[in-house]
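ERR on first pass: missing label on line 2. Operator R.T. fixed the label and resubmitted. Corrected input:
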Amino acid sequence: MKHIAAKSILVLLAALLAAGAISLAAGQGAAPKASPPVLVTSCGQSQGPAMLNVILKRVGVDYDITPLATPQDLKTKPYKTIIVTMGSSLKGMGAAGISIDDELKRIAELIDAAHKAKITIIGAHIEGMKRRAQGADAGDTTDEQSIDAVAPFSDILLVIKDGNSDGRFTAISQGKKIPLVEAEKNMDLVAALEKILK
Amino acid sequence: MNTLRKTIIIALGLVLAAFAGISFRASRFLKEPVVAGPSVARVATLGEYFAPIKGTANDANVFFLEGAKPGGTVLVLGGTHPEEPAGRLTTWILAENAVLDQGRIIVLNSTNRSASTVTRPSGAYPATYTIKTDWGGQTFRMGDRWSNPLDQWPDPEVYIHYPSKQNLAYMDIRNLNRDWPGRPNGTLTEKTCYALIQLINKEAVDIVIDLHEAELQYPVISTIVAHPKGLDIAAMASMTLSDEEFKIGMEKSPAELRGLSHREIGDFTKAIPLLFESPEPFLDATRGRTDARLLLEGKDDFVVRAGKRGLLFEKIDAKGWPIDVRVGRHCSTLIQVLSVWSADHADKAVIMTGVPKYAEIIQKGVGAFLHDPAKSDPKKIYYE
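pass 2 clean. output:
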């Protein structure tokens, strides 16, 4: 009889602990999810897509990289997710023969089309502080303009912690209620995207 | 009286010219020893790949480091710009220390040897610099960015790059990293690039690594610049190094800027070109006294002040950017690139040991990896 009572207490305690863990998870919001196929593009023509090319190969999902993607590209394949990398490269935009204004216009149209097609948007800032105004040439605000154009309109924010050291993405996440996934290191992005996309 | 004054002035001028001439000559003909390391199988010269280079100032030594197992081939270029000493010191460490288990590494310490025999006109550069070692020290030529005008002169009004026809700055016709892919009937520097292209093709080189340094006021710094076909290697290497050792970025070679190794080698050969940049405050326009101390310690109050005004693309503080840090970055980046390449190309892997990484070079100093020629087998000593 005593044995059964002890077992009952243990089961009850385990159930209470599990309930606590679930409620804790619910308090933080469910882990953000998205599905492949994925279209990767850039707002600012930095090296983010080249980094994601290496990362997504390791994640092992169906993806394409189109640095200058337009709404037309969303019709070429049944994409369920787009990842837009934030952070600008004046050299990259110069090589493509475009300006930050061209980029902001293109991305606004792409995000609008993605929302209408119910495609999940992941705003990714994965190049750290060098793709913030703090790491740019004096007076160059194109990195921050790129963030303003993408982050508030994303469904998920994926950032390297170093680039969020001033809490900019945390503030956007809390203000707009957008799940924020932070990775400590570059190669942690593999595990983060596996959780999101698999 | 007037004649006497003129004679004295001319005599003083001749004395000064004589002192300068002696200094220039000593620097130009300084012999820099290289003690061939355990994997050096043979040493050729660049002229063997293009006869018109034979016997010229740019008939540089070419060290072949070979492993027992066949694999890929990597060419490492030091001294494209000799005034960026981390490049030459990295290739010195490779030639003297690397042990190849698989594949081959081809090393040039003096890719533009002519440029290593002159310093910047009116730049007040030191003629030489010395790396301290436990056996005393090894002295190297300071060098410049451009080929020696004694070897290639005059410069044109405008340099028209071959074959793109892009107009470049006149003096860059003597800049090895604006002359790729070169041409057989061009200037000495263009012929040097042409000879290197022949080497790349004949030796079936898979990857070319061109080692450089940059001023902190230049945006392409602390980075790997990659031809589009090398972007994956550069991305993986930069992400891993940034996680594990030090921050380093990656850049795609712009198609519009011609003559650079990371563009033209990729366009004109099967090889994948990568260019490494480490920070060198000595090159900044706002530097103070331009001496060997600044070159090796990388400390400069004026550059620090420029940083405080947001004018730099790389951080700097009172610790500066010492040569050990800069060479350490190049060595670790090279090791990481070989690792990434070998992981994805087992049949063309290049497996190397014996070369120190970033932390070890900072701890022991570059000089710990230079070998004493006085205590080495004379048959293994080559001079740059």
